[in-house]
Write a structure and sequence with these properties.
The structure is a single chain. By secondary structure, the protein is an alpha/beta fold. The strands form 2 sheets. An 8-stranded mixed sheet has the order 5-4-3-6-1-7-10-9. Helix 3 links the parallel strand 3 and strand 4. The longest helix is centred in the first third of the chain and has 10 residues. The radius of gyration is 16 Å and the shape is globular.
């Protein structure tokens, strides 16, 4: 069965963005992107790079991990504000929103229904794993269904911001088993955890 994977960058103090929720790697952002970090993304996770970055870097690799990306409305609007209606045209792209009347892009599916039910149906379909890009609120809503965490841990603290599972996450302790790790010279870590009690893929 396909896994739901929360593949996300976080600071040492557990934040995925600043308090305003803006793209921390965008213009004026505070999140450094070292050369070895970018190289690791290109080599190991090429499908997670947005289309403009893939084009700029000459990345054409399909990738082996994901064929579907799930996104909340706020995260999606960061791309819209930059004039990008579909940052991931190489993936099936679902945006969860109860207020977005129609999709700005014919290739992007807007889902107004229950995220949990949608993910359970997706897991039953054939394909590669399903990537939750965020934001934190969507990851928090999907918390019970997340099978794997791939945490890109930055050597950075910011003190306050959007937590890993959003501001409205419920208290539900869960243990995870470390399945893989990569330490980069720049200080970033890629940590893969599978939910304890599940067999790895």
């Amino acid at each position: 069965m396909r896994k739901l994977v929360y593949y996300v960058a976080t600071t040492l103090d557990g934040f995925i963005a600043g308090p305003d929720g803006a793209d921390p790697t965008g213009p004026g952002g505070f999140w450094p992107i070292p050369e070895d970090y970018l190289g690791h993304l290109v080599t190991e996770y090429p499908e997670t790079l947005p289309a403009p970055a893939r084009e700029a870097l000459g990345v054409t690799a399909e990738g082996t991990r994901f064929d579907t990306v799930l996104e909340g409305r706020h995260s999606y609007e960061i791309g819209l504000d930059a004039g990008i209606t579909d940052a991931y045209p190489h993936l099936r792209h679902l945006v969860f929103s109860r207020t977005l009347a129609e999709s700005p892009d014919p290739a992007v599916e807007v889902v107004s229904g229950d995220p949990i039910a949608t993910v359970r149906a997706l897991k039953q379909q054939d394909g590669k794993d399903i990537w939750v890009i965020g934001g934190g609120a969507l990851a928090g809503a999907l918390y019970p269904e997340i099978d794997r965490l791939i945490v890109k841990l930055a050597p950075l603290t910011i003190g306050a911001g959007i937590p890993l599972f959003g501001r409205d996450a419920v208290f539900e302790p869960r243990t995870w088993k470390l399945a893989d790790h990569t330490v980069l010279g720049s200080g970033a870590l890629f940590l893969t955890y599978d939910r304890a009690g599940q067999e790895p893929a």
